[in-house]
Structures are given as C-alpha cells and as structure tokens.
Amino acid sequence: MRPIDLASRSGVALRRAFQAQQLRRVAGSRQYSNVTSLPPTYEKLHNKYSEVRRVLGAQRLTLAEKILYSHLDNVEESLLNNTNNGRDIRGKANLKLKPDRVNMQDASAQMALLQFMSCNLPQTAIPASIHCDHLIVGSKGADDDLQAGIQTNHEVFDFLESAAKKYGLDFWAPGAGIIHQTVLENYAIPGLMMLGTDSHSPNAGGLSTITIGVGGADAVEALVGAPWELKAPKILGVRLTGKLSNWASPKDLILHLAGLLTVRGGTGYIVEYSGPGVETLSCTGMATICNMGAEIGATTSIFPYTEASARYLEATRREQAVKNAAAFQNFPGAGASEDAYFKFKADEGAQYDEVIEIDLSKLEPHINGPHTPDLSTPLSQFKTTVQEQKWPEKLSAGLIGSCTNSSYEDMTRVESIVRAAEEAGLKPKADFYVTPGSEQIRATLERDGTLQTFEKAGGIVLSNACGPCIGQWKRQDGVEKGTVNAILTSYNRNFRGRNDGNLDTMNFLASPEIVTAMAYAGSTTFNPVTDSLTTPDGKEFKFPAPHGLEGPKTPFDIGKDVFKVASQPPNPNEKVAIAPTSERLALLEPFEPFPNSDLSGLKVLVKVSGKCTTDTISAAGPWLKYKGHLPNISANTLNTAVNAETGEVNVAYDLDGSKHTIPELAKLWKERNQPWLVVAEHNYGEGSAREHAALQPRYLGARIIVCKSFARIHETNLKKQGVVPLTLVNEQDYDKIAAGDEVATVGLYDMLQNGGQGEVQLKVTKRGTGEEILIPVKHQVSKDQAGFILAGSALNLLSKGASA
Fold first, then answer.
1. Would 401 disulfide with which of 135, 293, 435, 761, CB 3.0-4.6 Å?
2. Where is the Aconitase/3-isopropylmalate dehydratase large subunit alpha/beta/alpha domain (predicted)?
3. Is the pTM of this model over 0.70?
C-alpha cells in the first residue's frame, strides 16, 4: 500500500503508527489485501479520505463534504485554517481543490483553450474533454441543421479539434450530443469531482459526483495542475419522502424548489438530497434535478448513489464502474468504526445548515415563468394565473428535450401520451420540437421506435445539440421580434429573449409531458390532468397519466460511428488552427496589472436596474460565433441592460450628454483610456458560467463592479479577470450613485496587498455638484484572488508560473 503522506508536524512516530494501523485494517478486509486493488481514481479518493478522517476525526460529514474534502490539495491547510480547528468549515474555509477532470462545451472551450495556450504547456495536467454542442442552430431538422452548423462554424470546430489533438483532450464532434448528457453517459462515476465550463454541469450530481460550473479561467487553473479555490459551501439538505405519481415528475420537484428558494436562495450552498424518496427516483431524474440547481444559484447539487444509479451505469455499458463503486464502498479507511468505509451517502447524524422536506406523493406538476425560472405556479392554478396576468393564452410552440430533460424515461413518458393522442386522431396545434440530448439517446429512441412516434405526430427532431435552449433557434412560424407570444419548454432557463432573441417571447418551463400535452391543446390554459380535448370525430379525449421506462430493456445504442469520441495522446507537432485574419478567433493579449495605488478617476458607465444576468452582460444566440474573438464579442456588452435612470434598454449617455448604446460608450471610453465601473442591483451575473461576461467589461476598461449582491460563478469570474466585485454594505446607497459620477477606491490597494484582508470604501464625487460621498462596500477576495487581481488576471499569474 502506498503510505499516506502526513503533514510533517504529525511526527515520524505518529506517521509510522498511522501507517501500521492502516495496514492492519487492510489485512482485516475480507475482499482486498492492499490499496492497489482499487482503481486509481478510488485509490486516490481513499487516501485523501483517510487524511480527512485523521484531521476531522469522527465529525459527521454530508456526502458533499466527503467528496469535496477528499479532493483537497492539502487537507490540513484547507480544513484547519480559520475554522476553529475544523469545527467551523462551512462558509469560512478556503478550499484548495484538485479536480479529477474538466469538461468544456465548444462556446466556452474557445476562450479556455486560448488561455491555456498562453501557459505554453505541452499537455493538460488532468483529463479533459471538448463537446461541440452550442453552435448548431435549431431550425428545420437534425440533418439540415447539423450540416449548416458545421459549414458555418468549421473554423471554430477545426480549432477545437486541433487543440484536442495537440494537448491530448477528448473531442466530441458536432452532433455527438450536449455536454451534460454526454458527461453523464461517459465520464460521471460516484465520488468523482469535475469542473465544467457551463453552469449546468452539476447535472452529473445525479450520479453522485461533485461537479461545479466554472468559467474558463477556473478551468485553466485545473488544467495546468494548480489547485482550484472555492469558499467552503454551506449544505442545504432536501429530504424527500413519498413517491411521484401520475403527472408529477422529477422536473416538478426542482421547479417547486426554485419557487421556494428563488434564484438567489442557493447561493453559497451545495444542495444535497436524502431520504426514502430518493430511492424512488431514476438516475436521470436525479440528474434533471441537479441540472436545474443552477437556477437557484447553488454551487452544485448531489444525490446519494442508489440502485437506480447502478442500473444506469449498466445500461450505459459501464458494468465495471458498478463493481468499482461496490468495491470502494466495502474497502476500509481511517477513523472510528462507523467511518471505516466511504459510503456514497451522508454520515448518520450529519448536520445540514438548512433542511427542506418535500413529500413527493403530494407534489403536483408546476410551470415556471415567464422570464425567470423561480416564478413557480402549480398546474392547478396556472390557468387562473395566465388570465389574471394577461399572459398569452395561445401557445405558439412546445419544445422538449435538451440537456435537462431528454432521458429515455422522459421521452418514453411523452411517447405514451403522444400514442394515446394519435389513436384519438389528434395532432399538436402548436409547433412541436424534440431535442435529443446525445447521439446515444437519439439512436436508442430511434431503435425502439420512440422518435418515429414523435415524427408521425408532426414533431421536428432537432440535432443532438443545445439549439433553442441557448438561443440557437431560427423560428419557422413567422413570429417576429416584438410580437408577444408564449412557448412552453422542458429547458432549464427562461430569461427574457434567451431562446429566440425576442424580448416579448414568454418561455414557461415545465416537464416534457406537460409541454407536450399543452402543445396538443395549443393553449396555455389547458390542464391535461383535468381538461379534455375534442377529437376530429367530436368525441372528448382526456390524456392518460404518462408512463415510461427508466431505461431501455437492452443497453443504450451507441449510435453512428462519426459521433464517437476521438481520444488521442498529446501530439506536440500538431499545429493549432487559428488564421491570422480570423473574425472568429484571436489570440489573447495580457491585461495590465493593478496599479501600485488605489484606483482613481473611474466613471460610472451605466447604472443598471432589475435583473442583470450573464445573458444581459454577454448575449448568446448569434453572438456565440464570436466566443473566441474578444474584441468582436465585446460589441454586445450589456446590450440588453436597463438604464436605471431613464428606463431605456441598451442606452448610456456620455459626459457631454450624447446618447450611445452601452457597448459603444464603453468602447469610446476605452479609446480615451477612461476606466469605468457599473452599478447594479441584486444577483448580478445570474445565469450561465460564461466568463465573457467578465472578460468583455475588463477588455473595455471596467475595473470594479458595484452591486447589491453577486451570483457565485460570475463573482469568481470577475476576480479571475482582474475586475474587483464589491457589494454595498447599505443597499440604499445604490440610490446615491449615478451615471457619470467619479469614483475612487479607498483601502482597496491595501486590502489586495494584505491578501484580501481589510476594509474598502468608495469615494464618490457627484457629477455636476462636486459633492463627495463615502460609501462602504464589502468584498469576498481571498489571498489567491488578491494575487490574481494584482497581477491583472489569473491568466497572467498562471502563465508566469507555468513558464517558471
């Protein structure tokens, strides 16, 4: 057995005693004689978990804590510093973690790889994958859309494929599937820790992993082998009892929870599910719930490993993973007797910071929206709400699938009600789109006849890609921008304008079954649980309760060979494909370091009101084509933000009173060397993990962002790019700052020099009057993050370290 590397302060005698104790435990195991009997991933987890138990003793741990702490680079350093000797870790400790792998979707992978290339390393320190899923526009159908997408984006796909070959990354070609579904099918195993450059990466928590959505700079930290830092999250426990029935689905659980917690309620928390109700859920159902944990701001979400988890691993041809997980859970570790084994569930007696109990037996279908995923309405009340709010009663489209809800279970449940409607002679009255989550899902549904059922009903099967969910949708129904209309989707996010670029499209989120039934009615006021439709022969038809299969009766069909993963060792001779004249890709220039003083002379570019998401700061849709070209994509910065002082969208005023779009004015100020800041309200940067929402303002001259509160991923992304996120101590001070005011920082430079320790204030000089106001602000800058900001960006520091 490889001996555990204890900290030197433990002493030689203690080290030897501990190693002897471990050997005795191993010798007493019925199944294994030494630690090398475990596969490398679990051997590493075993060794780190043993260190965690040595440091924390018999302290009760949640499942999330066991996996998270067992990925620490230095267990003692992270768990014992500023934590009351390990008794007060949550919310205080700065965890420095070593993830097992990184997964990147094509839109965010471009900037992540451009940053990694700046470090001049021959290969990544840990395994990683690239998934080409974001750049395919959904329109006419899978074959036409995929061909058009490849033709339009070949330059980007060539870049990503060549980078994968050079650095030894797995490459999933366009059409292979959406990153989260592909990761669940191929990479996720219990106990793994992964980073994903997409906010919905926690989807893999349905298979008992810790998977966290991050920006590209965070991914690069892990790819170069540096520890990745995270403030130790608090743990929100959700205890499930009962069992779902009839029309209720796993989607309804997370829609209901989003309504309870709001889009900010999970910030700073990992959501961990437990209770007897967990055992009644499918693995893919648990993944759906974890996927949408992003909509409540959670760091990630996780379920225990169950029999359904093992069945899913077997169905996806990973029988060995089932054996490995069983072997690991039966392998003795360190600590008191009840802690001798790492079980993929919380310790008995583990405490949660908050607990919510949900009885699945009483859960009814929910519909969330429009324009925010936490506006939750029970189906039984939705008709009344639609009429009271004067939302459109006509449904223009129903869209099912995506990374959130394209499982075999989802699709066969939908199939059951589509078959019933077909037998009654009914067709959908609204346009009906189906997005398979992966080639494996598509091929299996085709093999088993499900896709043919949808197509016979008039459904349009789109490519195995994100498509309309992330704004890649070319509508065929004649709905123009500015037209108020309603769509229902089984997607995970529904910000204004997100799906089709029309700010007046109202996207309501629901389960695939509810979306499909309402598409048949063509109405937002139809309740399939209680209402009936009239068939062509004048009869009354009521949908039966949906039913489906957890998984296929035989293992999933792998699908077409062209969509299989391309895995290869690093090839130093491979040339990464970037044309010097490209409008899609551009090498990065390093940002300037922080000055040797406090910031002064900053001007408020714009004061923003209301929801300001990452979609607001850096829109997707047609702008995705510029994800690898920072100067070009910066032309969309804050282009749907609402000016708090005028109520106008995408309008800002220069100091001379001239009117501009927000990105135009930012560019003008960049050319004048005028640094600036933005003032905003709550949950600034809510939504996706896209680091462009931090990169673009930084490129255009932003030095600080001041708001009432931040979304977690975006706050981290800002610091990684050298922009300082500051929150108002007194929220009413938001009213004291206006566009054009001059701002200087007080104490910021000293705070950064002191590794994140110290108080900061803003000295605001009012435009016009010259009145000076001192406004206190808060920060959450760690020692490492202070170093990033002083260096100008995390990349500046990482590339310097890599070169050394």
1. 435
2. 89-522
3. yes
